[in-house]
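[Automated response] Your request has been received and processed.

Submitted sequence:
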Amino acid sequence: MRMLAAAPVVRNLLIINIIVFIGTSLMSIPMAQRVDDLFALHYFDSPGFRVWQLFTYMFLHANFTHLFFNMFALAMFGPELEWRMGYRRFLFFYLACGVGAALIQEGVFAVMLVKYHNMFGADIYDLVVNGSWKVMHGHEVPLTLSQAELVNTPAGAELAALVNGATVGASGAIFGLLLAFAVINPNREMYIMFIPVPVKAKWVVIGYGVLELAQGVGGFETNVAHFAHLGGMFVGLLIILYWKHRDRQQMKGRWEA
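Generated structure:
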């Protein structure tokens, strides 16, 4: 608690996320749906996409469990990282990992949608993308019998869910923090649920990365944005490597002067 009190960015991120969750939980269903439509992350080819969603999605959560585990990790790892990085760097790092995770998730969606475009063709693809969105929002969309049959196939339903579904949560940013913690404290021993012995931080993060990759490629837990998690870790690693390189160059310049 003492470290959390000395970490204003972490404290304010916790407050913002909790307030947003309580606020959306108290809304009527139509109003909450409207908030999701506007601020949750949609695929960029969906009629629901707005550019600000790359940022705002990370402050929305699907349910209390989703919020709890993300905020618990933020409270556990964030204060030390904020102290080590400084509050400006830490805030930039957190937000950059979240936005980077969103961009990588969008890229993975684009790769996945190639097969549906080839499967359905441009006309049916457009119908599923735009038609299903309109149906979700109360509009009647006329379909021919052949179109209806294609749209109502499992592949058509999967396509509609992929394009018109929404991604929420701070997990991408949180996975970036986990990566940073392991880079800064690679040999710090951690206790993990269901593992009776301490595990070094570097092995914990590597294990998480391998697990997320396996689940993402294997299609397990399709309602979880595994590649956004990996994206947050990847962007976090790039930022840390850049900072280390820049800091070495600056230190070298000081000595040579």
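Summary generated for your ticket: The mean pLDDT is 78. The two ends are 43 Å apart (CA to CA).
If you did not submit this request, please reply to this message.
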